[in-house]
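User: Some background: our group keeps a shared notebook of sequences we're curious about, and every so often someone picks one and asks for a predicted structure to add to the entry. Today it's my turn. The entry only has the sequence so far, pasted here. Could you supply the structure so I can complete it?
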Amino acid sequence: MLAVSTQPDVISFAGGLPAPELFPVDDLRAAFDAVLSTDGPGALQYGPTEGYAPLRAYLTNRLAHRGIMTKPEDILITSGSQQGLDLLSKVLLHARPSVLVEAPSYVGALQAFASHESRYLAVPMDDQGMCVESATQMLNHVMSTSEDRPALLYTIATFQNPSGVTISRERRLALLEFCAAQQIPLVEDDPYGELRYEGEEVPPLRALPGGEETIYLGTFSKILAPGLRLGWIVAPQSVIARLVISKQAADLHTDSLVQRAVLHYCMHTDIEEHLSHLRAVYRSRRDAMLSALADYFPSEVKWTRPDGGFFIWVTFPEGTDTRALFAEALAQRVAFVPGTAFFMDHLGSNCLRLNFSHVEPARIVEGMQRLAKVVTAHSSKT
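Assistant: Of course. Here's the predicted structure to add to the notebook entry:
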């Protein structure tokens, strides 16, 4: 996906990339300069595996504004939230063979879990998110044939990747109740939660009653820049202790200079103003894509309408093969991700994911016109 998106003549709706022109390059340059000028030796030295203590304290306060009440010792700084998924896989999956995931689900999480040869229990979704009743039925079936409970339940509850769907508050409470009753650790991945463009805020699972034991992953990748590779895990201290040991074996600690520079940025610039600008730009791009879908795509094609995040999930009539459609689209210099990438059992062949954050509105319209022509031509052949 990244290789495709770097070809200048391809309009790529494939990779889940933030807009590079929105990266706060000048402010980050100033932050790195300030850290090297005032604390260069410390920034370039080995650091604690748990992370830079002032950054963990800052995150404690920042998370409190979203209803997540925690302590610095409950936070582990990671090299992006992707490392968090890998560490959780190493710590939680070694004793249990299966995980509950949304269907569809984030491909990076599926890859992390697959590295431990996990079996997936893919729970269907609707417009309110993961269907808890289906999860209950799946678990009852599993428990009738095996004594092993799933190692964890993984969800992107807010503006899900790839669907863009947000789990409703009522469904979140049901999900928390289900995991507590079944003694299954709940992992909430929240890379997009601060990128809401409309609608009412829904608290993170960890901020809701009964969510205090939820394992929560966050990142600076979508709100600052992914190249910083800076994220975090909030978890019970018993889990953090095991994650620290696993991280020590992986990379000792996350980049000390980056941790200090990002903290300096957050403390010396108006990050809320930056977020407001991101939301305005990304909302206009989402709206451009939604309008283009309505203007150019056949009526039998359906899509989600996300209140935030980066993605729109498109569903074609049964029998459509979006993998074949991808090859035809690429020949017309437009790209997307076929739906099968987000399932482990080759489902989703009539679906695809579109990313709107990386492309300016005029190019979005042009790319969607190209894709609509491919869709029409493909449908006439089938």
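Suggested note for the entry: The longest helix spans residues 271-296. The two ends are 27 Å apart (CA to CA).
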